[in-house]
Target: 2-dehydropantoate 2-reductase
Amino acid sequence: MEILVYGIGGVGGYFGGKLAEAGNSVSMLARGKHLEAISKRGLEVESINGNFKVEPTVATNDVSEVSTPELVLLGVKSWQISEAAKAIKPLIGKNSMVLPLQNGASNVEKLLQVIPENNIIGGLCHIISFIEAPGKIKHTALEPNIIFGELDNSKTRRIEQLKKTFDSAGISNSIPEDIQLEIWKKFLYITTVSAIGGLTRVPIDKIRESDYLYNLMQKTAQEVKTVANAKGIAIKNEHIEKAFELVNSQSKGTTTSTQRDIMDGKPSELENFNGYIVKEGEKLQISTPVNLMLFELLLPMENTARKA
Ligand SMILES: NC(=O)C1=CN([C@@H]2O[C@H](COP(=O)(O)OP(=O)(O)OC[C@H]3O[C@@H](n4cnc5c(N)ncnc54)[C@H](OP(=O)(O)O)[C@@H]3O)[C@@H](O)[C@H]2O)C=CC1
Ligand SMILES: CC(C)(CO)C(=O)C(=O)O
Model:
C-alpha cells in the first residue's frame, strides 16, 4: 500500500515503522534534526516487542515530494490536525483514506473542515511510545493497537483492505460497531487522567492513592459523560467503570502522553481535552466546573509553552 505518515512521533513513528517493515511504500513527513536523522540513517524503533529499522520511500518536510497516497496516517498532535489537513489536501485523491490516530473527540470534526468526508476514516490507537532521540522511536509499554472504522460504521471493502494491511504488518487492530463511541471511550479516560496528572506531576499509581484525587477524577469523568450524552454519544456509567478499571490497573510509573507534555513544559492537548468539554458544555448549557477548573489551572502554563 502507498502510505504517507504525517508526523513521525511516538505514534506515527511506531505504526509507520511497522507498516514500512512489512513492505508497504511508506513516506515519512518529519522536520528538523529528526528528519535529518531519518534521511541519513532510516527510522529506528526500539520496542518491547522487538527492535527494527526501516528506510522510508521518501523522508521529507515537503508534501509536494510525495505521490498521492492510498492511506495517510496522521501522527501529529490533535492541535496540529487543521494545519496537517491543509498541507495534505492537494495530495488527496478520490481513493485516499485519511486516518487520524490522535486522542481527542474533535479530530474528525477538524478534518471535515478541510478534507472531503468520504476520504476520512475514524480512528484511535493505544501505545506508550515517544521520540527518544532524532531518528529513534521508543515503545515502552502496552500492546500497540489501532481501532478504526468508517464514520457511518459501515463495513466497506476499503475498511476490510485496511484491516488486511494492518494484519500483515503485525499491528493488532479492530473495527468496532461504533467508532465514535470508541473514540469517546478513550477520550473519557485520557481527559479524566491527563490534566490531573499534569497538575500533580506524578504517575497514575500515586494519583489513585489519594481519595481526594480519585474523587476528582470521578467528577471529571461524570462531566465528560454528561456532555457526551447531550451530543448523542452513548457513554454510560459502565464505560466510566471500565475507565477506572484502567486507572486502577495501570502499572507503577504510568503517565499519559499529554501529561508528559505538560510536565515537560511543551504545548499540550489540554484545549482539545478538558478545554473541549468546557467549550461544548457552554454550547449545550451544561455546567462543567471540574473540567473548567482543571483547564484554567493549566492554561497559564499552556500559554507560556505555546509562546516559547
Ligand atoms: N505517544 C503515545 O504514547 C500516545 C499518543 N497518543 C496520541 O497520538 C497523538 C500523537 O502523539 P505523539 O506521537 O506522542 O506526538 P509526538 O509529539 O511524539 O509526535 C508528533 C510528531 O509530529 C511532528 N509534526 C507536527 N507537525 C509537523 C509538521 N508540520 N511537519 C513535520 N512534522 C510535524 C512533530 O514534530 P515537532 O516535534 O517538530 O513538532 C512530532 O515529531 C496525540 O494525539 C496523542 O495524544 C495516543 C496514544 C499513545
Ligand atoms: C492512555 C494512553 C497511554 C493509551 O494509549 C494514551 O493514549 C496516551 O498516553 O496518550
Notes: The first helix runs from residue 10 to 21. The chain has a mean pLDDT of 97.
